Every structure is written in C-alpha cells, then in structure tokens.
Amino acid sequence: MGLHARLTRAREARSKLDSLEKQRGQEEKRLREAERAISECRGQLEAMCTEAGCDSYEALSEVEARSSKRKEIESELKTLDERLRGLSGGATVDAFVRAAAAVDPDTIDSRMENLNEVIRGLEEEKSSLDQTIGAETNELARMDGGAVAALLAEEGQRVLGRLSSDAEHYARLKLASAVLSRAIERFRRRHQGPMVGITSERFAQLTGGSFEGVRVEFNDEGQAVLVGVRPGGKSTVGVEGMSDGTADQLYLALRLAGIESYLEANEPMPLIFDDILIRFDDDRAGAALEVLRGLSEKTQVIFFTHHRHLVDLAENRIPPGGMIKHVL
Fold first, then answer.
1. Which of 291, 290, 221 lies closest to 254 in space, CA to CA?
2. Is 210 within a domain?
3. Do 215 and 160 meet the contact criterion of CB atoms below 8 Å apart?
4. Backbone angles phi, psi at 121, to 5 degrees
5. Residue range of the domain that includes 37
6. One domain for residues 119 and 177
7. Of 148, 172, 190, which marks where a domain is finished?
8. Domain for residue 253, yes or no?
C-alpha cells in the first residue's frame, strides 16, 4: 500500500511538473513576444525622436504640442491670407502687402476723408442718375421698343455697372485702410516702443543732455526715420544734420539698446568694445564709459584702447571694481 501511494503521488507530481513545464514554455513564449514588441516600440520611438529632433521619449509630447501649435498657426495664416486676398482687389497678397507697407499711416485719415468725399459725390451722382433712370424708364414705357429705347436702356445699364464697380472699389479701399492702420499700430506698439525708449535714454546720456532723446518721424517719401530731439521736444535734428561724433553716439545708443533688449531674454555673454570713442570729446567719452559701467552690472564688459587719455578718463570716471577692463 505504501508503494502504491508513493507511486500515485509521484505520478501526480510528474503530471503537475509537466503542466508547469508547459506553462513555463508558454510564459517564456509570451515573454519573448513582449520583448519583441518592446523592441519594436523602442525602434518606433527612436525613429519618432529622430524625425522630431529630440533626445528622449519624454520630449515627444512637447514636440507634438509644438506641432499642433504650428498647424494651428498655419491654419490662422491661411485664413489671414484668404482675407488679404479678399481685400487685395485682385492683386496678389505680396503685391498688396508691399503697397500697404508703402502707405504712410499718418496720411490714412486724410485719404479716408477724401474717399468719403468721393463716395458722397458718387452717392449724389447715383441718386441723380436714379432719378434720370426713373424718368427714362417712364419714357421707355411710352415708347414702342424701337432703337432709341434700346440705346437708352444700354446707357442706363452702363451707368449702373460703373457705379457698382466704383462702390465696390471704395469698399475695398476703406476695409484695406482700416486693416492696414490697425496692423501698423500693433507693430509699432509691439516692436518699436521698447527699442526706441532705450535708445532715447542712452542717446541722452551719451550726448550729455545735448539731446533729450530720439523719436520716429516720417520723411517726404513716407519712410520712417530716426531723429534726435533737442531739450524741450520742439526741435529735431536728422542724422544728416548731426556731426560725425553725434552720429556715432546715436549708432552706439542703438547698439546698446539692442544689446540690453537681448540680455533681457537671454544668458549674458562677454561684450568687447575696441576703440569706439575715437570721435568722442572727453565729456561724451566719460558719459559713454559710465553707460558701459551700468551695462557691466548685467554682463561682463571689456574695453580695448591704445589711447592713454581714455584709460585715464576711465580711471577717473569709473570707481574701482566697475567691471570694465582697461587694456593699453
């Protein structure tokens, strides 16, 4: 009996072992399939990373978000292009934009007023012609449909066609001028204000108060130009009327404004100036060195010169530790 029981248990154990071996084989097969699937997924992810230009899988969601944003922007641009084509009066979008850019925004109001006068004149003419057409229509009703009636009807249709074309042209011009005016104002507020403000402040400092700043005006061709503003704001001087030294100071003010705007949104980097004060007198050269000292609080400033008096001026105007290197 004992041997029989042991045999029974051995058979059951063997059966269970076979079952487990079979199950193990199935699990190993599933594991291999899972590893193959993981390898394929990794290959696909790596291909996606290569195509997206990112280094890790985690960045794919950000890339996808940027792609979606780009599609959204492209859709908006397409919509805007369609609107511009509708306003361009049959011209290409590029030609319409060039024509709009050539328009002096300061003359838009006067041009719109002139167009309003034109449309009022056209409306009066249309009213008069409507009355004439009404009278001619009554006259035609009494006629027998001969050659005179046909000529009068043709003339009436020609007048109506011209009025329709004039009214449509005026509507397009009016819409285009309104769109252009808003676009120019948005561009000025977004791009011009900060740079012009910083340039104005630096130019006043560099000229020792001889100018209180700069502002944008428009010349006879409708082009925007930068002019220096004398103290009090009533007198301005164009670049062509400035001395060589003052023109250099305006250029330096513009460069410093660009550098300061860049440093607001980017990591600082060393700035190297090589004999930029040659045409500055001592007062304005000292003012320029003080401006560079202020800039050195934001980034490293290195000033090269082989003029001894500029080194002496820097030592007198800039306190020790001002972070500007003087190299003779």
1. 291
2. no
3. no
4. -65, -40
5. 2-53
6. yes
7. 190
8. no
- The count of domains in the chain is 3
How is residue 92 written in tokens?
Answer: 């290409």
For residues 263 and 294, give the distance between their C-alpha atoms in angstroms, rounded to a whole number. Answer: 13
The per-residue pLDDT for 320 is 65
Q: Are residues 271 and 325 in the same domain?
A: yes
| Residue 42: partners with Cβ closer than 8 Å, 6 or more residues away | none
Does the reported pTM lie above 0.70? no
Task: State residue 279's pLDDT score.
Answer: 86
What's the pLDDT at 207? Answer: 93
Domain-located, residue 199? no
- Residue 327 Cα distances to 271, 272, 274, angstroms: 14, 11, 10
Task: Give the residue-averaged pLDDT of 70-86.
Answer: 79
Average pLDDT over residues 92-118: 74
Q: Where is the domain boundary, 190, 207, 239? A: 190
The confidence score (pLDDT) of residue 203 equals 92
Longest CA–CA span in the chain (Å) reads 136
Those residues with Cβ within 8 angstroms of residue 275's Cβ, 6 or more apart along the chain or in another chain: 304, 305, 306, 307
Query: Which of 82-91, 125-134, 141-150 shows the lowest mean pLDDT across its residues?
Result: 141-150
224-229 β-sheet, strand order: 213-218, 224-229, 236-238
What burial letters (b/e) apply to 177-203, b meaning 16+ CB within 10 Å? beebbeebeeeeeeeeeeebebbbbbb
Top-confidence residue, 273 or 192: 273
Structural domain contains residue 249: no
The Cα 205–Cα 211 span in angstroms is: 9
H or E segment and range at residue 170: helix 147-187
Residues 282 and 314: beta-carbon distance below 8 Å? no
